[in-house]
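Weekly modeling sync, notes
Attendees: S.R. (lead), two postdocs, one rotation student

Agenda item 3: backlog of single-chain predictions. S.R. asked that every request posted to the team notebook include the full sequence so nobody has to chase files. The rotation student volunteered to paste the first one in as an example of the format we agreed on. Action items at the bottom.

Example entry:
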Amino acid sequence: MEQQNPIFTKRFISLFLTNISVFFVFYGLITTLPLYAMGTLGRSDDESGLLITVFLLSAIVVRPFSGKLLDMYGKKRMLVSSIILYVACTVLYIFIKPFAILLALRFFQGIWFSIVTTATGSLAADIVPKNRTGAGIGYFMMSTNLAVVIGPFVGLLVIQYASFNALISILTVIVLLGAVIALTINTDDLPKPENVDRSFKFNDLFEKKALPMAFLASLIAFSYASVLSFLSLYAEQKDLLEAASYFYVVFAATMLITRPFTGKIYDTKGAKYVVLPSFVLFCAGLVMLAAANGAGLFLFSAIFIGIGYGTLTTSFQSLCVQSTTHQRSGYATSTYFTLFDLGIAIGSYILGLIAVGLSYEMVYYIAAAMLVVVFVIYSVLVMRKPRAQA
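Predicted structure, as returned to the notebook:
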């Protein structure tokens, strides 16, 4: 059956590589921009956090419209046009130094990030065999997982031994290659919506059936914001900045190693068999990170966070896509990412205030507590609707 329904087709691999390039830039910048803002531009902790919040804010504003835009203008066309504009924004970091204009650039780039990632996620859901959705989306999300390690690792390495402009040059070349690969993806055989209404209704902004799982994903994202937004600053405070580069290596390696197993379990036994243990692992990893005073426990926590977070995100994206019809896959993907980005944006802001008022250690304890809340909510949903939600 798996031979008759292969996941790794030519266009799947092309889409995989395009997605890596986009997230390589995203994670490379999101890890290094706070350090650049504080070290080179002389900005405070909370101001540097705005560089992340503003980017995600624009992504959140545009994301609900992305599904409709894909239907109106075509997924391939929106993928190509948005990634080209994403490349243009990446180049501009070399030339823009005033902080206010830098914030405007982050907002503008977030728009194209929102559209291009909705397009890649939706196309991935369309391309993978329907009987292997969990494994297929899981494998596709490995592109994001690879970017999680490559982006921050390269980013931190380059700004330590070269310069921020050198990093931008590298990021630009990589995402430009991704844009070229996107041009080769054939979507002619995929179903296309007919007689698309160009007016916007609620159903054009959100997929109602995907909202419950997308909401829980936003709470998971809130917790993940503690790692995404503050790990480099936390590591610098603890004199573990060099270890922070390897944190992402361990983080991504565990996701990549466990992904084939968790995807198969999802498809054969059901989501709850991978989701519930993943909550426990993610929560434990955050507690370890909060308690870390040396490189050992700091890196060990990455194993638990990698398995837990990696499995949760792919599982909840699959649940959102599977909650609706094939024709609504773009809207379900858009709904998932809208709420997920919202969770990261709110988490970055609120946890940033906690970091300033209390400590980074408390940030990770609170993020772990949030996961306990989501674990309870999901467990209740599973018990009430075991077949639909599990």
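Discussion: group reviewed the output briefly. Residues 193 and 327 are 7 Å apart (CA to CA).
Action items: rotation student to repeat for the remaining queue; S.R. to check formatting next week.
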